Each structure stands twice: as C-alpha cells, then as structure tokens.
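Hi everyone,

Forwarding the result from last night's run.
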Amino acid sequence: MKIISWNVNGIRAITKKNFFADIEALAPDILCVQETKAQDGQVTEALEPLNGYHIYSNSAEKKGYSGTAILSKKEPLSISKGIGIDNHDNEGRVLCAEYENFYLVTVYVPNSGSELKRLDYRQQWDVSFLNYLKELEKKKPVVVCGDFNVAHKPIDLARPKANYNKHAGYMQEEIDGMDRFTSNGLVDSFRHFYPDKTDAYTWWSYRAGARGKNVGWRIDYFLVSEGIISNIKSADINSDIMGSDHCPIALEL
C-alpha cells in the first residue's frame, strides 16, 4: 500500500497545474492532502477528474483557508473529522480514515505565524493532538501524515542557526511538541530509514529562489506507531514534483 501526503497550498490552484499527471505517476492507493483552501463541495469538484478514489474532506468554517482531504481507492471502515475539541475543530485540520489494521490521520498543524501570535495556541494544539492520537492507538496502530509546521532537528532545515527561536517552524516550543510525539511511541518514518540524510526538505519559501538553491525545511512527516514500523517498506520525499511550495512525501506499507 502506497500513501502520499501533500500540502497542495490550494486544491483549486494546483489542479490547474500538473497535479493530475503527477498523481497518476505517483499512483498512490491513498492520497492525503493538506491546505485545500476550499469547502467540501469545491474539493470534490476540483478532484473529480481523479478516477477510482473515494473522496473525503474536512473544510474550515472560514472560506479559502486550511482544510484537509483523503482520497482512498479502498473504502475506509469509517471517517471522522477533527479531534473532538471545539476550540481546535473549526479549521478543518484533522481527518481520520479507519482501515482494518490501522488508523490513517492526515493533519495540517497550525502555523505559529510570522509574528508568533499563535505560538501559545500551537502549544495547546500539540498536546491535544497527541492525546487524540494516543486514544486512537488504544484500538489499533496509527499512521499520521501531513504538514506539522516544524523542523524537528538542525538537520531538518538548511539554516538552523539563523532560524532557531526566531521564526515560526523552528521555535523551541514547537520542537518540544515534536519531541513529545517521537518520545511517545510515534516514529518519524523518514528518519527511521535515513537518520543522517542532509538536504532533504519538503517546503521552500517562494522568496529569493529558495527552492532552486534548496534552502528548505523538512516540515512534512509520516509518523507511525512503533508497533508497525516493521511493516514500513519505504519513506521518501518527492522533491522534484512542483505545483506547491511543499512537495509530496510517500510511505509504502
């Protein structure tokens, strides 16, 4: 089973680019999408040309903002939206599909913001989201993927010293949040296979030709329950695929 996760930075915008050809080439059994920036009906309409997938989405109350979606060839046993906390569930950030042997959760974690206005909220979110995942894990293993809006270690961004504790995505409070995930039984699948790989990024600023110079950040992840890490065949970053400021990441089970 091949799962692709991709922050598309607007589903309607990316489908006007090379998106459908890219997905055909990647050939995922399940596609998880973040930052759809569209309402449920608009997501379904935009993705209509993709044949053979059941389409599910969770949209933000605010139009043109946030939002997640899951496209699955196999119909899930169940679908659920949000984490069950009203304060966190109005931005369409979490969508969960239950399969026979695991839960698949796609997430678009809140960004702390350019002036760090949401850093406090982000810390509350991280704790609540981990609690939600651990509750799911009581029933069956979890695969969680998406844009976590944090570079976990210095190896995960091109310029760690220049960004540490200065910019959203590499604040100590955000790093602590990711530490909490990985110290509570969720394995960073990419680092499981490539513990020392450098220059492996999933997001690049649109400014100053960052992508061409590969001045990037690895902020998109597949985290998996320790109990099923032996079932993971590969974890990859498809940095050659354009269309968004993020690139797709892949997991093969």
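The longest strand covers residues 2-7.

Cheers,
N.
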